[in-house]
Amino acid sequence: MTDIVSFGETMLRLSPPRGERLERTRELDVQAGGAESNVAVAAARLGANSVWLSKLPESPLGRRLVSELRSHGVRTGIAWDDADETRLGTYYLEHGGRPRGTNVIYDRADAAITTATPEELPKAAVRDAEVFYTSGITPALSETLAETTATLLQTARENGTTTAFDLNYRSKLWTPEEAKAGYEALFPHIDVLVAAERDAATCLGRTGDPETVARGLADDFDFETVVVTRSERGSLAVSDGQVYEQGVYAADTYDAIGTGDAFVGGFLAKRVDGGNVPESLAYGAATASLKRTIDGDLAVVTPEEVASVVGDDAGGISR
Amino acid sequence: MTDIVSFGETMLRLSPPRGERLERTRELDVQAGGAESNVAVAAARLGANSVWLSKLPESPLGRRLVSELRSHGVRTGIAWDDADETRLGTYYLEHGGRPRGTNVIYDRADAAITTATPEELPKAAVRDAEVFYTSGITPALSETLAETTATLLQTARENGTTTAFDLNYRSKLWTPEEAKAGYEALFPHIDVLVAAERDAATCLGRTGDPETVARGLADDFDFETVVVTRSERGSLAVSDGQVYEQGVYAADTYDAIGTGDAFVGGFLAKRVDGGNVPESLAYGAATASLKRTIDGDLAVVTPEEVASVVGDDAGGISR
Amino acid sequence: MTDIVSFGETMLRLSPPRGERLERTRELDVQAGGAESNVAVAAARLGANSVWLSKLPESPLGRRLVSELRSHGVRTGIAWDDADETRLGTYYLEHGGRPRGTNVIYDRADAAITTATPEELPKAAVRDAEVFYTSGITPALSETLAETTATLLQTARENGTTTAFDLNYRSKLWTPEEAKAGYEALFPHIDVLVAAERDAATCLGRTGDPETVARGLADDFDFETVVVTRSERGSLAVSDGQVYEQGVYAADTYDAIGTGDAFVGGFLAKRVDGGNVPESLAYGAATASLKRTIDGDLAVVTPEEVASVVGDDAGGISR
Amino acid sequence: MTDIVSFGETMLRLSPPRGERLERTRELDVQAGGAESNVAVAAARLGANSVWLSKLPESPLGRRLVSELRSHGVRTGIAWDDADETRLGTYYLEHGGRPRGTNVIYDRADAAITTATPEELPKAAVRDAEVFYTSGITPALSETLAETTATLLQTARENGTTTAFDLNYRSKLWTPEEAKAGYEALFPHIDVLVAAERDAATCLGRTGDPETVARGLADDFDFETVVVTRSERGSLAVSDGQVYEQGVYAADTYDAIGTGDAFVGGFLAKRVDGGNVPESLAYGAATASLKRTIDGDLAVVTPEEVASVVGDDAGGISR
Amino acid sequence: MTDIVSFGETMLRLSPPRGERLERTRELDVQAGGAESNVAVAAARLGANSVWLSKLPESPLGRRLVSELRSHGVRTGIAWDDADETRLGTYYLEHGGRPRGTNVIYDRADAAITTATPEELPKAAVRDAEVFYTSGITPALSETLAETTATLLQTARENGTTTAFDLNYRSKLWTPEEAKAGYEALFPHIDVLVAAERDAATCLGRTGDPETVARGLADDFDFETVVVTRSERGSLAVSDGQVYEQGVYAADTYDAIGTGDAFVGGFLAKRVDGGNVPESLAYGAATASLKRTIDGDLAVVTPEEVASVVGDDAGGISR
Amino acid sequence: MTDIVSFGETMLRLSPPRGERLERTRELDVQAGGAESNVAVAAARLGANSVWLSKLPESPLGRRLVSELRSHGVRTGIAWDDADETRLGTYYLEHGGRPRGTNVIYDRADAAITTATPEELPKAAVRDAEVFYTSGITPALSETLAETTATLLQTARENGTTTAFDLNYRSKLWTPEEAKAGYEALFPHIDVLVAAERDAATCLGRTGDPETVARGLADDFDFETVVVTRSERGSLAVSDGQVYEQGVYAADTYDAIGTGDAFVGGFLAKRVDGGNVPESLAYGAATASLKRTIDGDLAVVTPEEVASVVGDDAGGISR
């Protein structure tokens, strides 16, 4: 049986060497990156049986994504599109450093996935899974995808699959008002909500201390669990009325991209493996801290490493 | 005064290392590539005062193209587009080797240039130039561009600027029938036609020996000069009724992309410098042969090197 | 159902850049390489449902091999060994050029696989497959492996799985006499024998024209099919008494390592897909010729590319 | 009209990878570096119409410098020298880290520029500019250059061009006493003096708090503006009797080389754009802080980035 | 005359780029690494006449090690082994970062050195040297080596050569109990003991403040000198009853591997050059701090740099 | 005892990647290159006890050359010069390909060696060697060096050391007339002359078939041996009146630089090892052919490889 199915867009991530500007570079590093596959990879690496659903052009570029995800043990359910008729989304990532922020340029318009319908996708995978995960990026990509996302979430719920959703607000895709409407159309189908503190404020107008935010959302939309993530300040979950807090593990950050997805992947992997909420929060936080030390979107970690961080005995040179 | 103005699309060219497949690569080499800027660069490097017109997103990617072309001495006249509203075309190039051909994947749909209108572009540049050059790729990119191309060619002709045009048929952009109609709409505004033997056959139905093809086109459309290029078998020009033949110079091919544009750039640079047709053909052929030894779309050559190939005394180690 | 199961050793392949000697290099390229996984990858890429069985240390190095093979769509059945107790085989590859041959240094003694027993491996995979493949390298690695190989071949035969075997003589592992004894112990369990002309001569004393060699082996050991491969001179098969010849497809060789395995992978993939012997020989030869253009042991090809070579219309630049 | 003209030496900057010592490296990164072109590039990138004057060998190496500067939008006025008779200066840069300093090895003796006379250079550029800039490195390179520098400064002043000068003391070129004499010979022709606190102390014997240093210099040599730069402790300007202080913007330093030139480039760009002294100091400080995050001598920045640092809202990931 | 002779294993050190995991890497950096050759290189670079003794396969890999060490001025006395019969140890190094430690995977079983006997090695080198150095890694590699180590130490002592030994406990080679027995069998032949505080505790059960540890060992085993190293907390020596303390010099750590060996190499180089114990401790600490800034196991430093750190005037950019 | 001592200039060789032009490159490969050290390295690698004499700046760059040569087993006798007063010669190498030749840019003026006097160099090394070698580059570098070269050759002859000299004409250093005078001043001190056919014609006016050239030189200047090298057409020696011819071994050329030096190094190594003239010619030709397959100036070969080429059984993949 499948533990976790995710659905969303994955792009080619193209980044120049450290210290080099995108505007000048002669060389780009190539990796796969996308919120939902990042979650699937983290979960798969931590032992969850994971599947990623998407729509891709049938080209070397589309195959490249699949083969990278597959190498981490993720199975894929792809609607292959005619390579001459469609394209693959890409994003350019320039690493920053104070006072210059990390810069992301998306080139994702009209990607194959924007036309994905439920009929093209292996819905059986959603039905048979323990958890179905997607994020707020997916419905923002096109009207078709907004509908497909809703249908998949509904399908999941109707078949007893737990649904998890990360707001993942992207200001380049829609306005806060559009996002709010989009989110709220999906909320009735969602069990577990992950919300960055900033997204909750910007899009949903939920401010205040994180417990208030989490409780408010849980109450208003009847979520089983709400996890509020606060970047360097840790996370907080309200689940079945209980509150759980989790700090961050200290990390030397090499690449911060994908940290949030690593958190979700770790959290869900532990949940489907039987962990309770606080255990899963710790597992997610540890996965996220390890991710920071690794180049790329993906949490290339092992269960032993995550356990070691949770158990607080990592560090040093082992030889 | 400007010698040569060209107008067209330039893309980011992304290519994996030799022997590595696009489907597997972790690294992409980045360069600028586009028929019309390739011609402008070759001509500028050979001494012509060159300008390239285009429309680009105002982003690090758009600026990257401009800075690369500018580094070769090409001046640019750019209509800058809002980076959030548009994109830059890219193309992926995988070097081949028998029995596997070199593979090109275009990702150019909806590039900024597809909406370029004559009003946005510095038409004065076209009016003041000795030669205006574009290729059959440009009108194939969008209906707007087909109109813009026609307007620019007309503007040039009306102001005494010689117009040059390379068929450059791209089967991924239009059918032979569409191309024929597109070409023939522009032919009345063209002085110098460059036609690959294959394109003349495929799109215009002109077959037979190259002289017949060239004469037929010159007669039917009243071109001042028609140059038929035949890849490894050299080229032939009919100009004011005279026929000139030119062989290829032997070359160790490192990268064949851009060879045709190098030929045109060398040919035009010599023409605007006062060379007659056979001298210009030789100059074009030499530029093309040098291009083959160099990685990338661009003919990174010097006038001395081209002269040396024409004078046949190159080769060996000079020290 | 599984089409092809292979069993054998895969190593880390470490190679310096072109033109650089192993003795001086500061940098090694890392890839997976091993006859049986090379075959599984080629077959999987060409559409066969493929599984690779082996034994590996449970370490980043062992996982690296699995993830690379998995990225090509091969499923794996691994007996994981304690990383502190065992090791992973490696091989160093220095590309040559006349008058200096390509040089291979094996460092494979005591690799985890040398202790693999049938009990540790998922024998069900062998039973359920259409074809079971291994090569003469496997029994040469240890006495334990010689026995395991025999057992797996027997298991396959008893369950109706076709068995295929490539002599793959390695002089650094055993003498021709030892190899002869080792091979002949396994021949009773083999349906399809692949034999390089040179190996047949060196180890089995079979010389003469390839048809004689193939017929002799088929008659003496009752093989269903014998394929004699002759490097640049093509291949010849005797199958159920019929003779089939196949030439090589011209190729620009970038990396010759793995060419033979690509041939076998292409041949078997076509066979399990219903191709007859001559079709499968052509498919194998085309896969092998494409492999030559690609860096690494693996045939990173697509069914379309192989079909295109067989159909003889490859080459040139498609754009 | 030209905003800023600078005159000076630019070298090939050759540096090994991070963590690698020059003494051992197999690979050198190549970039252009020189105080006056660094200033011209920073200013050009920030919108100033900039020209760089110099003398170079007519070789691929000389052309390389021009093309790199040109790619940033700097125009060049070069006296080309016979490549067989002269050379290009180079400098080797080894990045350090406590307790090992960054190490610079100059190989600049007898560079083409050391023989540059005013007659060879396009003096009209100096006459038509708003600002003429050079630094104390230039007169230190040769006696000829000391005279040429004086002549150019005089020419500028006589034509109403504001002159700006950075002490830029280099102990490997001359002694403090020689530098003092050299500087003071030029001071009568200078409007804006930039002086590192350390250089003012070492060469001019001016110590004490920066305001005292700046006022003293302004009073004694009748400068319109004196800017004292104090590295991590910010800068201070005395201009027409007024005092302005500017702190540094926090930065993660990737490469500190060129920080001072970035400051000057930003300062001058803002001045010619109509900024007052405090605005220009802030702009210079922001440009310098951004430079620190970028590999190479050059401040590869945009006006928007500099404005954002001044406005204090940079940092984070924008997506 | 030879100043320092060391004996031990050197491996190929293979490491992926920063931020990349061993499990995913396509590229490995190659360098030589081994405690005793690290010491020999540091000492040779600092002016000591140094020789390294070992046993290696006569292959490109074995020659690679020799040529790298030789390039630093170390002479080598090698027992060459048949390359087909033996192997070279390798180790994989993955750089870490909180919360993930640096990870080392040894692949050193059955390396050529494990069979080295005193007869194969140039014992004259040991006899003629001022200092003979080896570490606790060597006797842990095989029983043969434990005996060879003892013989060489004895030979040294009998010929008036000072013997120095670093515990260098490696938990992957033996248990603390085995190590204790191994160490104590050698202690009678040792003059100078270097012991990491942690090794002294783990293997010898010596805990408490470092002076107590050092005095206890010196008294119990009659060492002339005992140096206790405490990582970031400095070192302490007891020599002929006197106590000396040494802090660490602040360093930006790029690569911590080999720091301890650099300390020993600096310490011994100063000792054989006539330095007293506190001078030698300072020299060792400075060498170690410089090592931290350099990629690889080796302290690529100069005597001037070490002297500069000791004299506390390093840092900044010199130009 | 020393077998071969050579004296001459070695430079840093800086070359861009294949297919990339020097004018555009961001990256340079760094190696040591110089005729006399190339010969010393080839000879040392083939078993000769070799020493290289030169004068170098005492800097990381000077040390880099020494460490690279030392890594091949060459001992060095260096007159170290003050790094602030002198420089190291460099040369830029751009690989070509028809119709563009390989391009070399020397930047060697005022290198440290140009001031080398016999007193600074370890003349004992010359006296004690079996062969002293230098080339026509050395006396061309400065008048001081012309004198030093003469003195060293004389010293060698007076002490019974055989002297060998390669004309190695460099048109960028002197005219044919100057070279002729320079050569003829040294000829009285030379036993073995190596002359490229082209150099003999250009500088000495010796044309005609190679035997005539060799005999003419041997007769006129009383050389013991004259070797005329003819590039792809092999070589011919006249020694003590006998004539010997040697063809070239077929090679796939990766880098032709240093081929002539490899020939001399192989020839001399065999001579000092007791080989007769034809054996030594074959050895030289084989060394040269292997050199062609290797990147860089140096013949990174082994005696076994050279013997294998001479014995004609190289090629293929050994595994």
UniProtKB/TrEMBL annotation, chains A, B, C, D, E, F:
Domain Carbohydrate kinase PfkB: 1-293
Protein name: 2-keto-3-deoxygluconate kinase
Superkingdom assignment: Archaea
UniProt keyword annotations, A-Z: Kinase, Transferase
GO molecular function, one term: kinase activity
Similarity annotation: Belongs to the carbohydrate kinase PfkB family.
Pfam families linked: PfkB
NCBIfam families tied to this protein: KDG_KDGal_kin_Halo (NF041332)
